[in-house]
Amino acid sequence: MNNKSEIRDTFGRKFEYLRLSITDECNFKCNYCLPDGYARTHEKQFLSQIEIQNLVIAFSELGTKKVRITGGEPSLRKDFSSIVNIISLINGIEKVAATTNGYRLKKNAHHWIEAGLDAINVSVDSLDANTFNLITGKNIFNKVIDGVNAAISAGYRQIKINSVLMKGINEGDLIHFLAWIKDHPIQLRFIELMQTGNNEVFFNKHHVSGETIKSYLLKSGWMKKVPLSHDGPAQVFMHPSYQGEIGLIMPYSKDFCKNCNRLRVSSIGKLHLCLFGDEGINLRDLLQVKSNKEKLKKRILTALTDKKESHYLQAGITGATPHLASIGG
User: Fold this and answer.
1) Which single residue of 39, 74, 92, 178 has CA 20 to 30 Å from 266?
2) Of all residues in the chain, what percent carry a pLDDT higher than 70?
3) From the DSSP assignment, how many helices (H) and strands (E) are in the chain?
4) Helix (H, G, I), strand (E, B) or coil at 225
5) Domain boundaries defined on the chain
């Protein structure tokens, strides 16, 4: 039986991409996410390797092709490489990616790719060391850039750099970023600042639309690429004179949710149908043993009947998400 088309919602959207958080801990204090640092808000332990394996097997049998390991900062888990390896060996999973702040990337870039990690996203919100420190609360810009270079040398299938756009902070970095990717085979992704439960004042002060950058790119000879079915929501642009690419993630743009293809599971085993949705659907009671697999698949499919058409961010509705680290961004 071919189950590859089973994860669909009532709007016909197909879900082949799972974002799996393995911890909500983070060692950075980014001003748009955790300005006061990480504070644990639950008593439950994070998902174990067995729970992760059973979870991803079920999702794979329902058509998931890509898994992105997230946090918090996922590399804070000592068994990160083992988790990567477990997921990479599951039948049907074609791509294993991870998002990191780069703190441990230089040391581990080769280890992670050997474990089965195909692609990596690194958060670099500015190419100016002082601004980087201002945003992240960490004076380690050179260490993170060394990590990016180590990832390039290691030969990852894809390397992306995430940068959150913020008015009055780093919006002027575009020219520097473009110069950087001219000779580097990476995809630079500008992400619109998103409002969460804890950052309303900050959002109102610093939000800037990605449409201005899109307009600039199109006028400068950049061309929009056609996305693959399990790609993320970024609009990706290429230029014949550049080795790198530009990706724009604009959640406030028209029809952003129309092609949604991702589901999220938190580090304590809750299924989230949207980054800005409700409290989540508990899956953990079905993750301990393999014999619960069919029940788990049924619960996932049943949950999809409640997925909304939009995140409604335009209306100022942020759901139950206090900050982006809480369920993996």
Assistant:
1) 92
2) 87
3) 9, 12
4) coil
5) 17-326
